[in-house]
Task: structure prediction
Amino acid sequence: MGGGAGWRIGRLGEIPARSELPGVSVEEYRKAMAERAPHILERWADAGERFAHVNRKTHDVRGYLGIESFGANAFQAHEGELLVVPHDELGEGEQNEELYLVVEGRARFVCDGETVEVGRGEVLYARPGVRREAVALETPTMLFIVGGRPGKAYSPPIWATDWRG
Result:
């Protein structure tokens, strides 16, 4: 991984989650989320109870690369584990459309109740309001996700802020 003035390179699987960076306080983050957006913490807790996720990893692509104009993350999991937490982008008022690229493995998405399998090199696009979730079908499976609000300037979602304690 490296780069120069104005550019940077990285390997998706080696980009850390925001919570793994120096100076990050998970406790302070959860406290801020509990005050500002408890519904998101509830959504995450519900998903944690309903889906296996022991090996699930997040990769903060946007933060690592310093991207400011769109959201970018990668999620990685083992077969049968949660990749995308069930959501519709409406509850937190974000209204994001999202593009999911399967980089490795295969994923089973459920979009508005319809099940679809997406394999390596394939993409799935979901508009705001589409209820979606995804589970890994192989070990490992990695998704690269890009998102933003149609017709609006990008601002990080409510859950992507307040990591530093």
Notes: The radius of gyration is 15 Å. The chain has a mean pLDDT of 89. DSSP finds three helices and eleven strands in the chain. The helical segments are 26-36, 38-50, 61-65.
